[in-house]
Amino acid sequence: xxxxxxxxxxxxxxxxxxxxxxxxxxxxxxxxxxxxxxxxxxxxxxxxxxxxxxxxxxxxxxxxxxxxxxxxxxxxxxxxxxxxxxxxxxxxxxxxxxxxxxxxxxxxxxxxxxxxxxxxxxxxxxxxxxxxxxxxxxxxxxxxxxxxxxxxxxxxxxxxxxxxxxxxxxxxxxxxxxxxxxxxxxxxxxxxxxxxxxxxxxxxxxxxxxxxxxxxxxxxxxxxxxxxxxxxxxxxxxxxxxxxxxxxxxxxxxxxxxxxxxxxxxxxxxxxxxxxxxxxxxxxxxxxxxxxxx
Length: 294
Ligand code: GRG
What we know:
Blueprint (H helix, E strand, L loop, with lengths): L2 H21 L5 H11 L6 H12 L4 H22 L9 E2 L2 E2 L1 H5 L1 H25 L3 H14 L4 H10 L8 H26 L4 H28 L2 H4 L5 H4 L5 H25 L7 H11 L4
Antiparallel strand pairs: 1-2
């Protein structure tokens, strides 16, 4: 199987499960529409794919990992809806489509995000009620921490606070990237390993892998905001500079940022070395993020 075929398979399985989750509850029609609009707006499903691929690599049963993969994608989608709000990044375009608040109104967009966030926890807890094994509890805890007040929410808070800051503070930049973006990607690989009931050393290695992959992803995101095309990315470009954001290109220039990206890619690949060819999908995923255009 090729990389694209495998990727497609993970995405299709995730989409199927997400669709079922949204259909199996009696959600008010408008809320269902606003949640579905963003959940099925053409996201790359990066985090579920990492979770499922890590889980498969380590001999896990993907059916047991799926609730966590879906929860992660729901939390990710809520974060994008809220990030696009007028009070945050104030964006009108996401994944090539009008943002949630443009279509459904600001109040309903906040609720679509709240709905996805709370439903994500409901899904994980429902699974834990049927299989309350320590490794699954740990996977849910890992995701909760990544999304929360020391993870993504903390990162977004620092990101908003430092807008317009002109001083090149590398430590702060790394802290924002680690929390805002990397934490959720790291949670994907870590939860994938935990759902496979892997030994502590393996979980640690996959956690380190996810941290580097997350950093790589954010650096390439920063680079694409400068050199990418709005039509390819499906979102407004050049926003970081206009908002005076602290980014890798703003501190090191494009070439410097590319060097940091390469360093993170190499470090991620290094964590996969013990798995040899079995880790082919994750290895190719690292390469594809390094070379991504969207
Ligand atoms: C509102 C608590 C809260 C957090 C928002 C995710 C986020 C934090 C902000 C989005 C701004 C941004 C561009 C972050 C950088 C990287 C990132 C998360 C990009 C979007 O992720 P993709 O490319 O999205 O995986 P798709 O559309 O493919 O799902």
